[in-house]
Amino acid sequence: MKLNGALTLTPGVQPPLERPRRRSHRPLYCPAVTLSTRTLVALRELAAEAPVTVTVAGDCMTPTLRSGDRVRVIRAKVLWPGDIVTFQRADGRLLVHRMLGYTLGSHGLSLLARGDHLSREDEPVRLDRVVGRVIECEGSPLSTSMGQRWRCAVECLRTLLRRSVRSWVSAPSS
Fold first, then answer.
1. Which end of the chain lies in a sparser environment, N or C, as judged by fewer CB atoms within 10 Å?
2. How many domains does the chain have?
3. The CATH number of the domain where 49 resides is what?
4. CA-based angle 155:132:60, to the nearest 5?
5. How do residues 36-87 score in pLDDT, each as one tens digit?
């Protein structure tokens, strides 16, 4: 399935493609595809049955993933800090970013994620908007080291603490 020309989603196994050459002077960008709720539900169901192939568009996950890389996504029952996940933002855009951890929001448990090449975290993502976890890139298994998982968990705690302090400071005093 091809969506807006930027993202290709194909159930089943795909042959690996050659990695495109990169230009060092190219500006950082992180395009995304907008999905309807029905398309997201269908994509989640496909990922639960078999790995779904997604073509990455954008530089927000460099150096781990590059624009044009093909990754395989599966539905995971448990996601850990450091996992690379595919999810739909509140505005409908589909992204592939690294999970930092969980937070408790107005809709229950949500996850915090951020692109490896970005300085800001995404807004918390409800779990029903998560498609799945990336398991391989260009035919090679994708693994996350324990050190990377710890760094993501610490970054999640730092983000949550920063948000708590900001809300505490801006709260009206009685």
1. C
2. 1
3. 2.10.109.10
4. 50
5. 888 888 888 888 899 999 888 888 999 999 999 999 999 998 999 999 999 9
